[in-house]
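User: Okay, second chain of the day. Same drill as before: sequence in, structure tokens out.
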Amino acid sequence: MKFQYPGLTVYLFLSQDIETTSLPIKSLEYDEQGVNKPSTRAFLSGTTLLDNHHEGNRLYAPLKGKQGVYGVLEVIAPADLFFPKKEINFISQLAKVAGKAIENTTLIQNSNRLVTDLRLINETSRQLNSNLNVCEIIKLLKGKIAERCKYSQIGIIHKANNDSVVQILEGSTEYFYTEAGTALVNDLFGKVTSKNDGLIKGNYADGVLQFRSLMAVPMQYAGVSRAMIVLLHEKPYYFTFESFKIVQALIGHSTLALSNTILKEKLEHAAITDYLTKLHTRAYLDDRIKEHMEVGKMGSLVLFDIDDFKKINDHYGHHIGDRVLVQVANILCESIRSHDIAARWGGEELAIYLHECNISDSEIVASEFLRK
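Assistant: Same drill. Structure tokens below.
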């Protein structure tokens, strides 16, 4: 174009973001002010427009393909130079050729992307069927989303059936553990989980000024949404509609596996946990002691009994006795190391198993617990 018309200035108005600085590209504007501009009118109408401007005469030729318009070619001539009809027709035809080339390239790119996305989803589905735990599923999902959508922050949010507080699951990035992140989650959760299609914003500034682009997708299971994934990025309009759709697909394929795994782990935890004190059951304690006796060097089992517990139940009622049991169990948990095991031995009897601990050290631990 520059070789044919060396005295003219040429720009391209494109309908999609192009990450390049080597071409004279401008963005089409679709707001109320931009829709009246000749470049936008040429794009929307698909017809070539002339605009006599005090800074020069301008020609706007749409880049048309068979399936749509992909942009506008702007040609600026000096104020004393007008476009002959022959040249207008030539530039319009040139713009059409360019439009078809853009369309063909776009179709090829879309086809390649769809193939890549399909492979990504199939690979994700295959890996989800390999008996992963919750942390492994979240790690897998984060990695797959990152392959297609380069986020700055990601939050995996969940709310239990009867819980009024949302839970930020392990695997979420640091922002979601801040006060601002928690406020954002609380604001979004109801809005996103009540919809089936999620939310994408390119200029989000409601309380999260450092993040302009936001994508939030609900995780639906059996028609109910109790979880969502939120992606954030500092740049405005960073997430594309195509990336939004693939994230939806990845989350849709992962939701069933994640929901089932969360339920499975809850059931497994309930099977080894005393419902009242939340300590481990005696059966679990016995199994762990047997395992440790085969591989460990030493260990100590300490039993505790609450004095006059029957009198507490008889005088104050069993509900008060239960509160006493829970309080003692909490103190017991605070008195041991993270790798030791606390359990309800039976009734008002509690027990702890201290790994690699001799009799003298176990007596010290028991004495400290009794003083509390």
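The chain is about 45% helix and 20% strand.

User: Thanks, on to the next one.
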